Amino acid sequence: MSDTTSTPTSSPATPGAVPDSATEALQATLAAEHAAVFVYAALGGQASQSAQPGLYGRITAAYRLHRTRRDELIGLVRAAGGEPVAAEPGYQLPADLGTPAALTARALRLEQDAASTYAYLVASSTGATRAWAVTALLDAAVRGLGFGGRPETFPGL
């Protein structure tokens, strides 16, 4: 699991007592966002702002949104009474990220993974947390289209 979107979002409402399964789903989603932020930073370092301004812009926007979502998830985990899972020291990257096609393919995979992760959070939560997760799931699905994905009836499943 690893990713998310490119449009600004508002912070989710602080949920009340969150059931254990929801807390576990929040932690899994947070872990995936940690990975997405790391990978998008690497993709941004490989994209050329001058040679591929569209791709560079989409990657940069996705990086910023995933960073925001990660920070929101930290708040949600704390509000649920949990200690947010820490980021790993590093994440595995594909060996070849030297072409726009490779960058686009990896970004698409990140968004597909994000949609799956957010679908899990939607299924495991209620109330404001679920509404926030639905928005994040839809954002990931739409962002994936910008990286060459195809519309899906049930994104993330």
From TrEMBL:
InterPro entries cross-referenced by the UniProt entry: DUF4439, Ferritin-like, Ferritin-like_SF
DUF4439 domain boundaries: 25-157
CDD domains: Ferritin_like
Region spans: Disordered: 1-20
Pfam families in alphabetical order: DUF4439
Domain of life: Bacteria
Biased composition (Low complexity): 1-15
Protein name per Swiss-Prot or TrEMBL: Rubrerythrin
